[in-house]
UniProtKB/TrEMBL annotation, chain B:
An MF annotation (GO) of this entry: ABC-type transporter activity
Protein name per its UniProtKB record: ABC transporter permease
This protein's record includes keyword Transmembrane: yes
Higher taxonomy: Bacteria, Bacillati, Actinomycetota, Actinomycetes, Jiangellales
Organism encoding this protein: Phytoactinopolyspora halophila
Sequence ranges assigned to domain ABC-2 type transporter transmembrane in this UniProt record: 30-234
Source superkingdom: Bacteria
Length: 330, 283
């Protein structure tokens, strides 16, 4: 079987009647990293808790490594690692004692020192957990999650609260685990994290999956954008006809949305050259995950927005350098 | 976000190791948690001191009161009986309510639930320091009573041991169930009060049930601590009150009713814990 996680029509309703997860289906293949994206309250953690065997689904079917994770906890747990969004430690134990305690509960454990080394906490091993910074605590959480050499790793917002360097280290560690054959299900609201790490991803909104696929598949639903500051030398120029592109004026910038970035950009630049028009602060950028994400957050289904208000939202994202590299997206 | 499911160690598919292997695993996991909990207790000097000194002072106070009332049991037996009652009520019951609630509110229980420990193993591991302390105090009390207080050799040690073990299990379960109505660790003083007071007065640990009217005594035998005290009295003295003492063999027959009541309470405590125990704070 090539899927380590199978989710079919999963629903989860809370006692008050609130439906946090609505008929969600997806699969995670062995060895891949699958990211669940979504705004706060989209249902990511509620979905994860069912897969981790911490909560019962109210509908649908869930399989982790072929087992029902809630009913067959004893069979599933030795093979998975879980990093909660929020988990506690007794403050009076040291880092080392905490890890040792956890190791003692595992069927097979890495050496404690190795796990602490992996998250770069080895030098803090004699420090009481209460003395750790928020980021260090997060890394201790991660160390415990990987201590049992899991086949499947659940990471619920693993880098929230980490400084940029620790985030990079965490990403490096996750990549190393992926190379070693671990499958990872990750939730995050850092889009660059998903862009760099995810083989496939799903965007959740109000309990449903509204977009799913590889990063490029998901991004393909959005147009690329070209933008420049309006009102350059001699007022706004009359733009040439740009087939299939939409032009929006917003916040002092002219934004051109197009499905064919290279073609539209060429036409624009040739026209500018011929008419000696200066395009100040010119930026061209392929569609980004952020665009899809914001469109989903705005419209729910991720369809390309129509109003100028949305263009304004996205126009802000255009001020960065074109083709923003991962790590600087936010 | 209440996740109330309460799973046992038995997953649907059986372990290849079989029962012995699973039991070894349970022991190893609970032991690891116990070691950490004992370390934590040893670093909390105040809690440790209170747990050691409070029961001794309580027993001394109760004894003074009780000896004036005149209990036929004698000082040695009374000391042991009171230590059993106080250890169960204070060290096991009250102490565990506050421990479980503190661990719940700090999200430690939630974290522990993500690992290989089963739910009962987590509760057992967190309970171990209290259980060891309670057992230790009772053992010391028995030793002291035998040595210094003219406690005669118990009629049936099996009943005394059974009473203590059953009592520890019962009050740990009642503690877990009581967390349902305990918002934070400080609230434990309030939430444990009803069980605490009812047990203190109506269990026969301070005054034998014979001292009450028949109707009260009939009801009092169903108070959770009563069967534990009855079995302890029976095991130590061969009688639960003013009736003449019975021998080793007959004491088993006398023990059937309290043992059944104790078993019933354990079943109730288990069901209540399964149903009500929350693993994370209410948000």
């Amino acid at each position: 079987m090539s899927n380590v996680i199978d989710v079919e029509d999963l629903s989860r309703r809370y006692a008050g009647g609130f439906e946090a997860v609505r008929e969600v289906s997806f699969s995670v293949r062995r060895g891949e990293l699958f990211a669940l994206l979504g705004t706060n309250g989209a249902g990511k953690t509620s979905t994860l808790e069912v897969l981790e065997g911490l909560a019962e689904p109210s509908g649908g079917r869930v399989r982790v490594l072929g087992f029902d994770p809630g009913r067959a906890r004893a069979s599933v747990r030795p093979r998975i690692g879980i990093m909660l969004q929020e988990g506690g430690f007794p403050g009076d134990l040291t880092v080392d004692e905490t890890a040792r305690m956890w190791a003692g509960t595992l069927t097979s454990s890495r050496p404690v020192g190795e796990a602490l080394e992996m998250v770069e906490l080895a030098h803090r091993s004699k420090v009481a957990v209460a003395q750790l910074s928020g980021g260090e605590r997060r890394r201790l959480d991660l160390a415990l999650a990987v201590l049992g050499r899991p086949e499947v790793l659940f990471l619920d917002e693993p880098t929230t609260g980490l400084d940029p360097e620790s985030r990079q280290n965490t990403w490096r560690l996750v990549r190393r685990l992926l190379e070693g054959g671990t499958s990872v299900l990750l939730t995050t609201h850092y889009l660059d994290e998903a862009e760099t790490l995810a083989d496939r991803l799903a965007i959740m909104h109000e309990g449903r999956i509204v977009r799913e696929g590889t990063v490029s598949e998901v991004v393909a639903s959005q147009p690329a954008t070209i933008s420049f500051a309006s009102g350059g030398s001699g007022g706004d120029p009359q733009l040439p006809p740009l087939d299939g592109a939409r032009i929006v004026m917003s916040g002092g910038r002219t934004v051109i949305e197009t499905e064919h970035l290279q073609q539209t950009l060429t036409r624009l630049l040739v026209w500018a050259e011929e008419h000696r028009v200066e395009l100040p602060e010119l930026a061209a950028r392929p569609a980004s995950l952020e665009q899809v994400f914001l469109a989903v957050a705005e419209h729910g289904d991720g369809s390309p927005p129509a109003g100028s208000g949305d263009a304004e939202l996205r126009a802000e994202t255009l001020t960065g350098a074109p083709g923003t590299s991962p790590g600087t997206g936010r | 976000m209440s996740t109330q499911a309460f799973h046992g160690t038995d997953g649907a598919p059986r372990d290849v190791d079989g029962r012995a292997g699973r039991l070894r695993g349970t022991f190893r996991r609970v032991w690891s948690l116990t070691r950490a909990e004992v370390t934590l207790l040893s670093r909390n000097r105040t809690a440790l001191l209170v747990a050691l000194v409070f029961p001794v002072l309580s027993v001394l106070a109760l004894l003074t009161f009780d000896l004036e009332e005149g209990d036929a049991a004698g000082t040695g037996a009374l000391t042991v009986i009171m230590f059993v009652g106080v250890a169960l009520l204070y060290i096991v019951y009250y102490n565990l309510v506050s421990t479980y609630v503190a661990r719940r509110e700090d999200l430690v229980l939630k974290r522990l639930r993500t690992g290989e420990l089963s739910d009962p193993e987590i509760l057992a591991g967190a309970a171990m320091p209290a259980v060891l302390l309670a057992a230790g105090q009772i053992a010391v009390a028995v030793g002291a009573a035998l040595t210094f207080l003219d406690l005669e050799a118990p009629v049936n040690v099996v009943l005394v041991a059974g009473a203590v073990v059953g009592g520890v299990v019962l009050f740990a379960l009642l503690a877990a169930a009581t967390t349902k109505i305990t918002r934070n660790a400080e609230m434990a003083q309030m939430s444990t009060m009803p069980v605490f007071i009812v047990c203190l007065i109506f269990s026969g640990m301070v005054a034998p049930l014979d001292a009450f009217s028949d109707r009260v005594a009939d009801i009092a035998q169903f108070v959770p601590l009563t069967p534990v005290i009855d079995l302890t009295r029976l095991g130590l003295l061969g009688t639960t009150g003013t009736e003449p003492a019975v021998g080793f063999t007959e004491s088993f027959a006398e023990a059937v009713t309290p043992a059944a009541i104790l078993a019933l309470w354990i079943a109730i405590g288990y069901a209540a814990t399964r149903r009500w125990f929350r693993w994370e704070p209410r948000r």
